[in-house]
Amino acid sequence: MEFHRTIVHSPLKGISFKFSMGEKGKYLLLLGAGALLGSGATFALLKFRRRLVLKQCANDVHVNGLKEQRVLGSSDAVYAGSDLLMDEIVSEQLTRNIQFFGLEHQKKVISSYVVVIGLGGVGSHAASMLLRSGVGKLLLVDFDQVSVSSLNRHAVATRADVGTSKALCLKKHFSEIFPECQVDAKVLMYDSSSEDEILSGQPDYVLDCIDNIDTKVALLAACVRRGFKVLSATGAGARVDPTRIRVADLRESINDPLSRSVRHRLKKHYGIEEGIPVVFSLEKPTVKLLPFEGASGVEENPSEYQIVPGFRVRIIPVLGTIPAIFGQVMATYVITQLSGLQIHMEPIVTFDLDHYRVLHQRLIEHEELQYGTAMHVQVDVEEVMYVAKELWHGRSARDQLKGVGRAMWRSINELMLIRWDHTKPASISNLILLKFQEAEEHESRSLEDIKNREPEFFARVESVLKRAELEFDL
Prior knowledge:
Elements: E1 5-9, E2 16-20, H1 21-56, E3 59-63, E4 66-70, H2 88-93, H3 95-101, H4 103-110, E5 113-117, H5 121-132, E6 137-141, H6 166-177, E7 182-186, H7 195-199, E8 205-208, H8 213-226, E9 230-233, E10 245-249, H9 257-270, E11 277-281, H10 321-339, H11 353-371, H12 381-391, H13 406-410, E12 415-419, E13 431-435, H14 436-443, H15 447-453, H16 455-471
Parallel strand pairs: 5-6, 5-8, 6-7, 8-9, 9-11
Antiparallel strand pairs: 1-2, 3-4, 10-11, 12-13
Helix pairs in contact: 3-4, 5-10, 8-9, 11-12, 15-16
């Protein structure tokens, strides 16, 4: 059988090829397959281009009765609310959340506006998971920059981000994770002058991830005053046990020095005693602040190096996983709240509270007997618990044994709190725990006499009370 040869002219000018009949069939088959693939690719590209054009177009939408402009595809996009779930990619990205919550509940999440203040180890992880969970609008606030030492706990920062603003760093990375979310970043420190700028816009939730007490207290008080829902993070540093992290009302957050100081100031300056949920650890800090050394290598006064008054200069050791877990817990709590999913937190059980009530009542009765009034008693039952348990370890100030155990409760009937300095009120930083007989003797002596006759005991008590003064910033 004779095979005819034919000439096929190539689209390339001046080039032609000779093929046999069999080769021609193969050529036509390949040409047809290429045309089919090309048309499919062209269709996909056109469809994708159409979606990009739609995302770049500004459309007026109404969210919660407010007319807003929809500009998707950028972290600078204007908030588009639950309409975002109509986008195929967004819907697919959030499909597991939709399956978990249900579409209507996820619409509530994506229509929400959340403010995160403080973007370190806790705040960066909280903000990151709020974004990944589909919150439609985020405001990120922090005045600080990414440092090399913060990379052990930051959610998204890399070495390339060192020296850049934490807020802008998160915004940059977030635009690559969920570009449809409107992410605004403010390089600001929260204070009274920036309150309106940060808290305007009626956020659905505010996350307090600040580690400075003055700023934290001011923010929480402002949120309560404005009627905003707020969740606060307490101390995540110096902890190691993830099983002891809890969410509860501020008044229930025990064993945490930061919570204690915040409670004290909120009550003293704003009359706020409860109603603020916090994430905290039941674990007592396992390590302490490192000593502060200046450029000379000699330990110096850290307050002299503060750029901003009241902000911590000394370093607290941090296991990076714990702030991350704090942030994840905060995000989980807020997302479930926004979605309307009802969850019941494990209650915080405080054992032996009656013992502290006894000590508190005994202090009041002693003040009335000794000074004719109890009006100078400046501690409540919770603060009595701090003084008796944290400062004096449940034992007499004259007892050298340490540790809280059953021995304290066996001897509760012979212990009482009294003033260390008779001339000062019965406050957290002026109460010592003594046995009845020791207390009676102490009331008959002056501090000058104790200092001269028992200098070691005097110095030890002064040191303990100074600790309380520092923790409560008295």
